[in-house]
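This protein record is not my work; I was only asked to verify it. Would you go through it and say whether the fold makes sense for this chain? Here is the record exactly as it was handed to me.
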Amino acid sequence: MSTADPPAAVDAAPAAPAAPAAPAALDRRRRGLAAEVLAARHLRAQGLTVLARNVRCRGGEIDLLCREGEVLVVVEVRMRVRTAADRAGGSRRRDFGGALASVSARKRRALLRVTRYVLLRSPALRAHRLRFDVVAIERGPDQRLSLSWIRDAFRADG
């Protein structure tokens, strides 16, 4: 849970405006948002109801919060772009297993923190069973997208 930030001093100077994001950061953000839209469309087509997108608290963010029947589904969306060199092993960049493998233990802990926050703030959701899914979207060297939906990708207790 986050605590309230201390009040700002009365005589403090106004904060400087944020610097514009670098083009690479904007591209990454756009790709991430596009991946979330694609994942939400796919999940809706599979019968899930999307309750919220980009649920944030100090501890992290849930990309998609969905419901499938009586199950509350926390969805992490991951996108990776792979080049022909990546697939052939000729790239200098390390391949850590693509989008699915990028959901680390640290990321899982952050998802659990945000989920606890959501459940504290929305008592009606506590009655639902909970499931953590991952939607992995990868763009291949031919620019085609492949989407993998892993239901029950990890458990809250482990």
